[in-house]
Amino acid sequence: MTTTPTPSTTEWTERYAGALMNTFGPPKTVLVKGEGAHVWDADGREYVDLLGGIAVNALGHAHPRLVAAVTEQLQTLGHISNFFASAPQITLAERLVGLLGADARVFFTNSGSEANETAFKLTRRTGRTKIVATEGSFHGRTLGALALTSKEAYRAPFEPLPGDVVFVPYGDEAALAAAVDVDTAAVLVEPIQGEAGVIVPARGYLPAAQRIAHEHGALLWLDEIQTGVGRTGAWFAHQNPALVDAPVTPDIVTVAKGLAGGIPIGACLATHGSGKLFDPGNHGTTFGGNPVAAAAALAVLDVLTEDDLLARATAIGARLRAGVGTDARVRETRGAGLLVGLTLVEPKAAEVVAAAQDAGFIVNAATPERIRIAPPLVLTDADAEAFLAAWPRILDHAGLDQTGVTP
Ligand code: PMP
Fold first, then answer.
1. Is the pTM above the cut of 0.70?
2. pLDDT digits 0-9 by tens, 259-298
């Protein structure tokens, strides 16, 4: 009996180019299977996934609890419209409000961009329109979220974008104070800038942003799409004492990515009065808060709690930062928990990503000299140690010269 051979990565890649819009460039490989922090490509090659779908796969791949939650919910009640409510949706909203530790209301979406669109519209309901955002920010690709994203290359082809957004240098308290005024609806900040290459501000920055916003009657809006849901070792990065030196109580928090461990979901949480700014008819979504996505998110929150994965993110993240930083070809390491960034002594991040993939590890080049690592929170010690053992060899193969580097 003959069996039909399964297509190779090369064949899939050709078909991809023929069928999909070229927005991402050619895929680095074509993945067919995952388990824990491991994935396999169509040629049968195995990789340790140190990117986790860009800070999404908190429980890794094919986690039995996530699979069971999704399966069970789909067998029970898969989708309803937002004319109706469901138990997972309500329970998840309550859980998120509890984790935030403030009186808040939630609007569910399907992605980070949509969570930010929701928040952007919410800020317009204050009667003010100006948003003060930061240079190096990333808030998404839809037109509203793009208007809040500073990178010129992303913005320029799509102008005009929704207006009244000003950008100030990230981490610069004085620049923020100079830009915020009585016309400002909200100050929008990422607690760590992930897409810019894991840039961590001083611990006083978020408390200062809150003070400056509130002095002018503006809202403090934190984009925790990448940093939220345990990624940095706290439920929300703004609650992490490693990142802030005083309590921060944001008015709006947007989350997505890791929330349902890979099932699409996002959420806009708004505290106190700002949670009540929308009236019926002001906003909507077909899929947002779908019972399956909400059940998946509840399973993620349960496993993160039961398996103490926030503490694990802190410990294993520290180990990874210390380990990669011992090589003199790494200029500095940054981050908190399992959102790890490092700067190379030469702009060879793309070469490092390719060399890592050849060695069986998936990492990301956030900028030409910055590498980002955001693995599943279930990454084992053995996988972390295997990566650290391979790291000097990866840098060699990427053409980063040992000689001439001052340790
Ligand atoms: N905000 C931040 C901080 C992000 O990191 C991202 C995704 N990289 C987004 C918003 C957009 O999320 P999505 O791609 O789900 O629309």
1. yes
2. 999 999 999 999 989 999 999 999 999 999 999 999 999 9
Burial 366-391, CB ≥16 within 10 A → b, else e: bbebbbbbbbbbbbeeebbeebbebb
Catalytic residue among 120, 236, 257, 387: 257
Among 205, 209, 194, 319, which Cα is nearest to 258's? Answer: 194
Respond yes or no: is residue 223 known to be catalytic.
Answer: yes
Mean pLDDT of 197-204: 98
Counting from 1 in the atom list of ligand 1, the atom nearest the Cα of 193 is 3
Is 121 assigned a catalytic role? no
CB contact at 8 A, 220 and 226:
no
- DSSP code, position 235: S
Whose alpha carbon is nearest atom 1 of ligand 1? 139
**Ligand 1 contact via 41 beta carbon (within 6 Å):** no
Alpha-carbon dihedral angle through residues 256, 258, 259, 262, given to the nearest 10 degrees: 100
Q: Is the peptide bond before 160 cis (omega within 30 degrees of 0)?
A: yes
Ligand 1 geometric centre to CA of 327 (Å): 31
Decide: 140 in ligand 1 pocket, CB within 6 A.
Answer: yes
What atom in ligand 1 is closest to the CA of residue 224? 3
Catalytic residue among 107, 108, 120, 138: 138
C-alpha closest to that of 193 among 366, 56, 23, 369: 366
Query: Which amino acid does the sequence have at 367?
Result: T
Hey, is 145 helix, strand or coil? helix
Please, are residues 291 and 88 in contact by the beta-carbon 8 Å criterion?
yes
Phi, psi of 188 (to 5 degrees): -115, 120
Q: Which of 24, 113, 227 to mutate to test ligand 1, by most ligand atoms within 8 A of the CB atom?
A: 113
Distance CA 165, CA 170 (A): 15
- Name the catalytic one among 41, 49, 223, 251: 223
* Joined tokens for residue 73: 């919910």
* Residue 28 annotated to the active site: no
What share of the chain in percent tops pLDDT 90?
Answer: 96
Q: How far apart are the first and last CA of the chain?
A: 61
